[in-house]
Amino acid sequence: MLDNVFYQIGAILGLAAAGGALALLLRQPLIVAFIAVGILLGPSGFGVVVQSGEIELFARLGIALLLFVVGLKLDVHIIRTVGPVALLTGLGQIVFTSVIGYLIALTLGMGHVTAIYIAVALTFSSTIIIVKLLSDKREVDSLHGRIAVGFLIVQDIVVVLVMIGLTAAGQAVDGPSLGKEAMLIVAKGVLMLLAVALLTRYVLPRLLHRLARSSELLMLFAIAWAIIGAMVGDALGFSKEVGAFLAGVSIASTPYRELVAARLVSLRDFLLLFFFIELGANLDMNTIGAQTGAAIVFSLFVLIGNPLIVMVIMGYMGYRKRTGFLAGLTVAQISEFSLILAALGLSLGHLEQTTVGLVTLVGLITISASTYMILYSHEIYARLGPYLGWFERKVTHREIDSLAESRDQIDVLLFGLGRFGSTLARMLRERGCRLLAIDFDPTIVRLYEQEGYRTRYGDAEDPEFIATLPLESAVWVVSTLRERALNRVLLQGLQQQGYRGKVAVSASTRHEVDGFLREGAALVLVPYADAAREAADKLLREYRQHSDSHNLGVGV
After folding, report:
1. FRET partner for 191 with CA separation of 20 to 30 A, picked from 217, 244, 378, 419?
2. CA nearest 41: which of 63, 19, 60, 67?
3. pTM score
């Protein structure tokens, strides 16, 4: 056992990196590898990791940032763009899974409170894992990808509400008067929501606009805001997670949310590593062994039952069986929120460690299996498709409407709104191009947004930000930035995202042109040289016309 915390963290990071590499080789999410490393390093394994305040602190910070990013990405527009299917499918799957899961838990001899926790934990799917897998397959912008993201957002909202309710119930039960405590908690919740609304409306937009002049300061504020929100939520009797989530929601309507979310992803994932390590280290393999039978039953229910209910709902609403099947596979696992919910129940005294171990084991099984199901979804559908006809109506009217609505109205993604970029944006817009303009200057972004342009605040150097753009529909990505390093990073980021359209970049000198063309650019713009050439052509045309007219006059 390593008594020095610094040595413990070093061992954790080293083995987590090795386990992550193995998981990547096996095409498994890193969450599975991290929990397995925690088991290996914990008391059930080599006993390297022991309970320490530092590791627990990192774990709590990771959870707070996770909820903050979820709140930050809470885009109700996504739900609207796919119509009522996101709400109906999301809520329908939650109700179906929780009810049937509760009955299965009672059948297995569990108590009512334990059965409720397990049933609720089985309803939530991992937004992080699913979006990552869909991104890798370039299916986020597909119809089934949009629907999946829509009902995952619904699930994220519900899980936060459940956590608020459980925390409030735990506070009320411990108080001297249940009714009085419940009213006090409701009053605190209303005040907290009101404060968030006022900050969102009057304070944060102006503050972020000033802070955005420095990307480092903007990121520092975002992290501080997440932690402050967690502190306030905890101080008011709610959980830290609820406070962090509301902190994210408070800046979700600002133009800086995509960049902040993209920049925080790496830090969030790094800190969540310690949560999953701690979770695995706290598992008692002896008790987990006794839960294997129940874990298999619940896992089969999640792997088969969740996709079936999604297919039934989507088929009833008029979607094709293929769309319902591909969307349904995305809910064939439980999520990191399920594990966090179980940990919350343990901290409130509602659950025992054995139940947490059971939920974790179900998570390991379903996440591992569903990863392969999603990766090979099209091959699986090719085999099962002929037998799924009863999930589809004769007229799939809803799918036709959704396909028409889901086409993103973007032809050109334009980076940079300087003198050259702004002129190019205006000309493209005048010629009917559907344009999304991106710049790192918040003042410029706001100015062009007020003029009716579709704009976004972002950084061409950030690959996570590039992944949030509607690349699937864009015909051209144009960079008017003339820094060579920025354009090279942008080209690499687009290639990593599998962008299939054409890319145009700007250069300062002619000798840079060949290099950009070799690196994948379809067109290289040299603004001053191109403008000078066009000016020279105009001058020569005018000269020739004048010369011809003069000669014609002399001849007469």
Report:
1. 217
2. 19
3. 0.67
